[in-house]
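Reply to thread "Modeling small-molecule complexes from scratch"

Following up on the discussion above, here's a worked example others can learn from. I took a protein sequence and the SMILES for coenzyme A and predicted the complex. Inputs first:
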Amino acid sequence: MADLVTGPDHTDSMFFMTPSPFEPFPTIETARLVLRAPTLDDVEGMFLAASDPRVVKYLGRAPATRETTREKLVKVTDALVRGASILWILIDRASGAHVGSACIWNWNEGDCRAEVGYDLAPSRWGQGLVTEAMTPILRVGWERMKLHSLEGQVHPDNVGSIRVLEKLGFVKEAHFLENRFNGTSFEGTVVYSKLSPL
Ligand SMILES: CC(C)(COP(=O)(O)OP(=O)(O)OC[C@H]1O[C@@H](n2cnc3c(N)ncnc32)[C@H](O)[C@@H]1OP(=O)(O)O)[C@@H](O)C(=O)NCCC(=O)NCCS
């Protein structure tokens, strides 16, 4: 409410918005990767992985089209600007190739909890790349986002992803039975989580 003493009430306006924790964008370099901000020019690179049936096998969705990939990138870049979630494009340092993406999303600010996600081109699976990328990404969650915990939701048969979470120090917290309908059948979800070390 505005009055003559305090002036206009900006409670709902940008005057009291907290700065985005993703500004400036935390570009990260690891031994083999550069993790950089997404742009709308990443449609082709993301489409290559997201359209591969091997990549989406445990993600409960159909392979992406260029159009759905573009829509996702628009949402992702918008959420990044709003400070709602963050996604990195994974670039192979040696070749400059776009090899995957990783994100922290589903941010519940009240509970200081969010979810991790990642995918990688199948030609690069099993080389430890996602574990390498996620190690500094978790630090962004603890340090910039001030998270208290992070979770990973995984299809029970997604052994590679479960192994990544275990290597990162996540522990199994729950196993939901047939809690998701993938359009054809019901599937379960395993939830792994990790508490902030800070
Ligand atoms: C899951 C995924 C991200 C893993 O990436 P990655 O870079 O290959 O992971 P890493 O190499 O760091 O680690 C994978 C681990 O799982 C193991 N692994 C992978 N597939 C496996 C399988 N089918 N059975 C048993 N172990 C397997 C690897 O041996 C490795 O473990 P180790 O280091 O102890 O040997 C990648 O396979 C992927 O993009 N999958 C499709 C998308 C997806 O499922 N995303 C996760 C959604 S929750």
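What I'd highlight from this example: The helical segments are 43-50, 53-56, 66-82, 129-143, 159-167. Residues 55, 58-59, 118-120, 125-131, 154, 158-161, 163-164 surround coenzyme A (CB under 6 Å). Questions welcome below.
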